[in-house]
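Q: Is it fine to ask for two folds in a single conversation?
A: Yes, each is treated on its own. Send the first.
Q: Here.
A: Result:
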Amino acid sequence: MSHSPLMHATALIADDEPLLAANLQAELIRLWPELRIVASVGDGASALKQGLALQPDVVFLDIRMPGMSGLETAQALAEDWPDTGRPLPLLVFVTAYDEYALHAFERAALDYVLKPVQPERLAKTCERLQTTLQARTQTPSGELAFAPMIDQLRTLFGSGIPAAASASGAPHQAGAGAPAAPLRMIQASAGNTITMVPVSEVLYFEAADKYVRVITAGHEHLIRTSLRELLLQLDPQQFWQIHRGTVVRAEMIASASRDEAGKVTLSLRGHPAKLSVSRLYADQFKGM
């Protein structure tokens, strides 16, 4: 006799404000006693690590956290989720009131709760989660539940929702379209030397801790910026994001090969690098 999935449902909470996280956990326990909170963490990197290790059914993600934002954490979970057949967790974003953010979540059909937690609204969220989890038992493969989540996240990343706040409080918009004046020259410093690298010579960019590696046909440079900041200055028609940590010049892609597991790998023109495409971006490479 099979047990209801709701009796064994698990959840992870990621919020950098301990009091609000504790309040959310207390309300969840009251509204959904069977739900087991397997971890409560305070930053995106920990949420990613615990999420991949514990594979909970539901993840509550604070939008603004130190380091990785809630959106970046969701993207990383989708890209790194193991191929065990277990579906991606249902995502609920926790946010202070932001009209633009809420419209974006509604367009992407992803749920959210506002800070501070409102019990009536959280009760509706719990009902939706329970309905979805129950429906998943009718899905023979976890992979079938993966595609809608990927579509929802892509909608969210392309909606112009603020991914993080700058020191001035102004949002850095992700996926907001082509910049007014795309970057043409990169100044890469090494010691006392600044090398001027034309963007037109760049094959691809790759995130490396607090730096970005700039790869040209014959050289590699490091610049101290985030890939997210750099993306805002690049022409999206010329540079395609293929992974949360990789952006490639489209015209330098020679071929895209897909293995038996569905993983896509790119080969470049005149360069030996092989670049992996995450599942979030794999459908950019479909035969015509």
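Q: Second one now.
A: Result:
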Amino acid sequence: MIKIVHCADIHLDSPYIVGDPRNAELKRMEIRSTFTSFMMQTKTFGARLVLISGDLFDDSYVSKDTANLLQREMASFSDCRFFISPGDSDPYHSKSPYKMMKWSDNVHIFKSNDMTRIEIPELNLDVYGYAFTDKTLQVNPFLNRKPQNPSRINILVGHGDIKPNSLYCPISRIDVERSGFDYVALGHLHESPGIVKIGETNLAYPGCLEGKNFEETGNKGAIMGEIDKGICELKCVKFSKRKYEIVEVDISQYITETQILDAIKLETGNFKEETALRVDLTGTVRPNFVFNPIELEKKIDGLHFVQIQNKTRPYVDVESLRRDRTVKGIFFRRFEDMLNSSDEKEREKAKVSLRYGLNAFASLNIIDF
């Protein structure tokens, strides 16, 4: 049995825009710290192979100190071999940081979008891989190609998308099933579906090591375990120090900020300091009930940070406003079609406009939305 670790989509030095901009540098350092912890646990585990399936960093932003960190960490684990398949955020090209860095002998970086093979006879194992050489890759490099030595453990490491017509190396389930590989180690999806068996081939996306924003909720990590010919004993392991979560709170029945706060705290009581939380306030509220989401955020403690979004709709007497012949009725009818639009952005614009307008007609606060 051979111990392997599979990670992807770490995005070192990627710009972070969620929350206070002053926390961007903190977030950058946290993902570096997570990578360092990942490397420490990989050493403790005694991995013989580390497979990095692309987007290790964002090449437009990667710093010299991050490059030095990568080189140092991999060189310090000489008993392990690292295989890196550059993806769409870190493609291999003439000015790629991959080409500029001086890597230790135990690191192999795939440099072509043609699939190539690295033999490791002492492990009875071959590793195949390819690279993005630009921001897109519109063909599958292992399509209709099989391992040269079927008796060995055959691993493919690559960046790709299980989606037809994708610009990011489109891979179909049939491609995987017919491939003949024992393990296909992919990157690109930031949410791990776990280890999936397609025919006789095991496939996995590990997801990212750390969530980047509210589109990447929950714990994140890598895949660790052992493989042999015909045996795959791998599992997802948590590495993230922070996690993003979203909760929805319907405030239709509330008339005070205290009631809203109590409802939020009830929904979020199980979250801890590691959590970056977004609270979506939904439902229908009375036009004269005005609250300030920013002030509500300041009153919630014990979390990494909280972002509150007001997604409520103002309560309106639709039939009355439809019949209203005053300016208020004309104003409402101007936005009625937009409120029922199939375009979410248009609906949101109409809701906000209506809230401002109806409060203005009632001489109520229109500042603190």
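Q: Anything structural to flag on that second result?
A: Two points. Residues 338 and 345 are 10 Å apart (CA to CA). The longest helix spans residues 24-45.
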